[in-house]
Write a structure and sequence with these properties.
The protein has about 180 residues and is an alpha/beta fold. It has 5 helices and 9 strands. Strands 1, 2, 5, 6, 7, 8 and 9 form a 7-stranded mixed beta sheet that branches.
Length: about 180
Amino acid sequence: MVDVLVIGGGPAGLSAGLFTAKNDLGTLVLDNDKTWMHKAHLFNYLGIESMDGSEFIEQVRMQAAGFGATIETDVAVTEVTATDDGFEVEADERYEADYLVLATGAKRDLAESLGCDFTDDGVVEVDVTMETSVPDAYATGAMVRVEEWQAIISAGDGAAAALNILSKEHGDHFHDFDTPADAA
């Protein structure tokens, strides 16, 4: 069992995985490696002048793994279920987690099967922290937006989900703010 299981390895999923792993939560990212980022080139991502989307994904994977996230690629998740103890996820094998972050782009079938509420526009309904109507399950990125899809927005959604998970775990509002001393 892990603390946080993230389904999807694009900007939203990797952002959530990075934040939770960096702050000592056991984090597993399951990714089918079909992110739209493989077809993208970044010119408008904060801090990046110009970068191929696949190169960006590889760098972020390495960064998240460097902080302790386990990232499994080419994994097709087939089912998610809420349990009394958290969540069960079915893929090539069965996984269990306390928290679930759905970051599957515009593919919303896992959120539907989990029983998440949807808006009248057909997107997953979330609060400001990206939490769905299913406690401790989060939806991010294109899952929660009708057409406003952009990599940096998705990464922010993943970070918001991670910060709420960390706040729940620490019992207070959690702030992930590094200082120059942290880099030393």
